[in-house]
Amino acid sequence: MPPRTVTSRAAAIAAVVALGTTLLAASPQSGAAAADPVPVADYCQGQCDDILPPGENGNATLVEILGNQAFGTHPAHSDDQLDRYNGLVAGHTGLTDQKLTDFFNDASFGVPKDRVESVISPRADVTITRDKASGVPHVKGTTRYGTEFGAGFAAGQDRLWLMDLFRHIGRGELTSFAGGALANQGLEQQFWPQAPYTESDLEAQVDHIRTHEGAEGEQAMADAQAYVDGINAYREKSKKGRYFPGEYVLTGKIDAITNLGEIQPFKLTDLISIASVVGGQFGGGGGGEVQAALSLLSAQQKYGVAEGTEVWESFRQRNDPEAVLTIHDGTSFPYAGRPAEARGTALPDPGSVTAEPLVHDRTGSAGTNAKAPVRAPAALKQAQGIYDDGVIPEGSLPGSGSGAQRRGMSNALLVSGKHTASGNPIAVFGPQTGYFAPQLMMLQELQGPGISARGVSFAGVGMYVQMGRGQDYAWSATSAGQDITDTYAVELCEPDGSTPAKDSTHYLHHGTCTAMETLERTNSWTPTVADSTAKGSYRMQVRRTAYGIVTHRATVGGKPVAYTSLRTTYRHEADSIIGFQLLNDPAYVTDAASFQQAVSNIDYAFNWFYADSRTAAYYNSGMNPVRAAGVDPALPVKAEKAYEWQGYDPVANSADYTPFAAHPHSSGQDYYVSWNNKQAEGYASAGFGLSAVHRADLLDERVAKLVEQGGVTRASLTRAMADAALTDLRGEQLLPELLKVLRSQPVTDPELNAAIQKLESWRASGSQRKETSPGSHTYTDADAVRIMDAWWPKLVQAEFGPGLGADLYGALTAALATDESPAASHGPSGAHSGSAFQYGWWGFVDKDLRQVLGQPVKGPLARTYCGNGDLSSCRATLLASLKQAAAEPATEVYPGDDSCKAGEQWCTDSIVHRALGGISQKAIHWQNRPTYQQVVEFPAHR
């Protein structure tokens, strides 16, 4: 596309003026600046900081969108946290406690009088004060209803369009709402089948909370209704005032001239649909048993049943003794392990597995990328086609995109007061939720009867702060991913007693031939200014059984079956609201023990961390089902009474769950780290990858060293996090073993020796992916990084491919991707997403090379693969792959994309805030770091 000229920009703005002075003048009514209401008790005393780039303001009027498209201008507070977040890359090495607010917000309660930007009262019983520095809403109510109404009103101010997007994603209606772009089709096709509901299903979940959770449940639903009322109040006000998000015009919902059209009212069931997207992607765990079964079968076909099973188990690594742990004091929490003798396992017959069809009755552009641009008014030309690639680019959200797998994210570093300079615990923690403009979360402070907190909430479910700080404590979470999802093989039948086929729509439930329930969603779209996708439609269909949603068909022992996915949190998408309610209640959370009780009410799989002035603590939440004795949770199981979850009720999707004490938990350990790693001994991993090398090692080694030295400060713990955030896991953890093999004999090839020397120099300098200086956009060890990026996929294939064979290697790489470097746009995280080095064959390579070198290995691979275990042959294999990698030019290693030209290494790594609306942001330096992050140290307690 040619660059826009000054003339075209001027024409665009002139055309906007032609829309009328009413549209241009319309802006949110901020109210006059006034003193913030009297602040509540704050025991952090200026030692709580946070950051959430790019900025708090996530709404933009049509004029602001056109200005951004034409001139790159940004609405106030839409990008004012971006440079501070990015600045930590260069600034962390000289960081002191006094300099923290150069890179973070002051997260104190309230707003000092001289820092107030605006104060409004959408109702007489609530004020929303915004600060000059970041525009964060500080909501203070004199009544509970008013407080929650204010939270909803502020959410409307900051995330109205985003909330609308996500309620439609959750309902499987994205294309009908925002356009038929191929990415939109793919997104709803991946999210809706995970949580397909009818409207009555959603209403039943609201009623369940209200009627089954006691007084807390009634209060939660009252709070949620007040929150929805606040959203709708802003929705109506902004529509009448013509300062609603401009995306509603660009997608054809409202006419820019006449103001005709409507923003559909929000309702309580919308919150359930949004919760299903958020919780399912960040708080899910388990599943994937069909793919696991296929890789097991492949191993058994190659090696025979007995040896093949052991080979597979050595890659599956359910309880790797070398895995980094969050609870490292030796305490064991057995859960979901491999049974001594498995019962009820239902492996498919080889070659019989087929995926359940989802999409039917395609018309027009469905399944294609066909475009039919509309004739846009001159004023809107600058924004034409902004959603042609989808409102959320493919692969940007966790669990979306081709080859996607659910990715847990976020990290936490906590140090006990015994090892800090002050004697108080210190925490640096936050969720890693990808990078979007605006972010999926929003910052807020809520103060009212029974509520006192500041932090973030996912937009649309922000009745309470979900991660943040209270009066004298702070908390955060990382995705845990333990196994709360199982796969059942339901035997198919026909009601007339005839022989069933694989596509039969009836199944045996406790001996009765039962009809599957059919759930459907029909979507259609026409082109708009924002999305030029040609007219089209299709129907999505899933089958629901008493054992969950049908995902695959197969035969087991020659009999046709349907494989179903059963998640404990299905039909309970918003039950976790009780836990968040308690976290925000200063009367409930008074210490580490009450914090642990609060988060035990959260049903999704998360690792929760806590710090006050006395204690650092941890608890793993989740609805962990009590499985029948002998059931192997890693593989499909027969859908029979004997193998069901204990106490299972299919109508309510409820069961018996493991008790509080069985969940990994701890208080007062010397330090805690978490980066979606293994929680504790005995707590089996729900998938591949929790092995001898994990990205949490980057944190564990740094924090352990700080603790050993003593005198830890907020700045030193932040430096440890920031240093790990710039480090290539392969360079730090795996390059030493690789170099030992390569240097086991003299390297006589000059070109290979030069490449190895570059890798050695990079390793010696810290294995970082960091600019030579701020803004240079050139890495200090650029060629070594290029060599590693080119070498790693070749290395893994050369090391394991010949020994495993094509079929088994393919099955195992389908279960666990080999690479997730920042430049690996093919990996589970997609390109420009920040989060890196979670999924990969790091542990497999590490164990295999140590086995070749004759070093001790706990939990070894069942076979040695590199050079078939011979050091000389392994060395030759590695050298050959390295020679290929060293010769690969940067233009091939970094092929370029919509954001970068081919060969641009820094750009390929860079973080791009994916635009979810009409405002785009500049790329920033890669960091493997939480999106929202807190740095806290409480010096006092109530």
Question: In brief, what are we looking at here?
Answer:
By secondary structure, the protein is α+β, with helices and mostly antiparallel strands. Helix 12 (289-303) packs across helix 13, helix 16 (696-709) packs antiparallel against helix 17 and helix 20 packs across helix 22 (871-887). Mean pLDDT is 93; it is low at 1-27, 32-36 and 400-406.
The stretches of 5 or more residues where confidence is low (pLDDT under 50) are 1-27, 32-36, 400-406
- Tell me the strand order in the biggest sheet: 3-4-5-12-13-14-15-23-24-26
The fraction of residues in strands falls at 15-25%
Mean pLDDT: 93
Largest sheet, in brief, is:
10 strands, mixed
N-to-C span: 60 Å
Radius of gyration from the alpha-carbon trace, in angstroms = 27 Å
Helix content: 25-40%
- Gross morphology: globular
Strand tally: 30
Task: Determine the structural class based on helices, strands and strand pairing.
Answer: alpha+beta
Number of helices: 24
